[in-house]
Amino acid sequence: MRLSTSMIFDQQVRGISDAQSSWLKVGTQLSTGRRVSNPSDDPIAASRSIVLSQSQAKSSQYATARSFANQSLSLEENSLSSVTSSITKAQEIIVAASTGTLSDDDRASYATQLQGIRDEILNQANSKDGSGRYIFAGYKTDVAPFSDTAGGVTYVGGTEAITQKVDESRTMSVSDTGSSVFMAITSNAKPEPDGTPSEKSLFAMLDGAIAALKIPQENADAATTQSFTDAMNKTNRGLSNSLNNVLTVRSAIGTQMAELDTLDGQGDDRDLILSSQMSDLVDVDYTAAISSYTMQQTALQASYKTFTDMSQMSLFQLNS
Question: What positions does the domain Flagellin N-terminal occupy (predicted)?
């Protein structure tokens, strides 16, 4: 087979072009730090990197969800901490107000103090988060969960607690409904001595004590005095039950927050593993790349030299 001048020329140009392309490709890898920038660079690695990228995105979404969940639980815990202090203060007032040597003015003063505590607790029960959503309203976050009317405080919020998926296989409640906090007692609550149902509403307990403290006891008959004593005792039991319920809710919140910390740690470990796997697939090995870059550069220079030498041959001269 005879070799024409144009064929030799094309081969030399193609050799230079291939060498230059290989050299530039390695140079791009060094400048970007990535071995696989396009699927054609390594189809298998590119395919696996897509799967890993999706896993990383999902892990990031769960991390964000855990952050929101932790914020919601922290806000609830902060409110319930204040509620706990208020209930404890109310218990102290009930004990002090039950003393038989007090005057009606003294009892009225205690009633005023209890009214203030009641209003503080109601304010916490209707508290909002930073976005203006009611914390204890369940999914009805745009409506105040507790309504205070002449008939007393009633719960008008949602019936279901807000839940959040915080990991691949874990969904948890990130807030409690007001009814489960302020309108409920635990299964081991102190029963009423006469067998009547125990009061569950924290506000009804306080309202009953406030009303009893406003009734004059000086020179009162035995029935009125006994009624007052019974009201104070019932409120004292009720506040104890309510406090126990609030503390139970707070304990559950603490457990959930601890679990979120654990999931965050596991998520960080998982992210490191995924990042390492992704790096192994698509990131450049600088040692190998630098070596390859040098070799490709040498090959390119050799191609230039060969082309130059070949162009001095008589066949090229005759062609010109």
Answer: 4-141
pLDDT in tens, 276-304: 776 666 655 546 555 555 665 565 555 55
CATH of the domain at 256: 1.20.1330.10
Q: Would you call 155 helix, strand, or coil by DSSP?
A: strand
Residue with tokens 């291939």: 18
**Whether pLDDT at 127 is above 80:** yes
Residue 244 lies in a domain: yes
Supply φ then ψ for residue 194, to 5 degrees: -90, 5
**CA 278/CA 20 separation, integer angstroms:** 29
For 189, the 3-state DSSP assignment is coil
Answer yes or no: do 75 and 217 share one domain: yes
Residue 33 lies in a domain: no
Whole-angstrom distance, CA of residue 173 vs CA of residue 120: 25
Residue-range definition of the domain harbouring residue 199? 54-277
Whether residue 266 lies inside any domain: the answer is yes
Q: Residue 316: what pLDDT?
A: 47
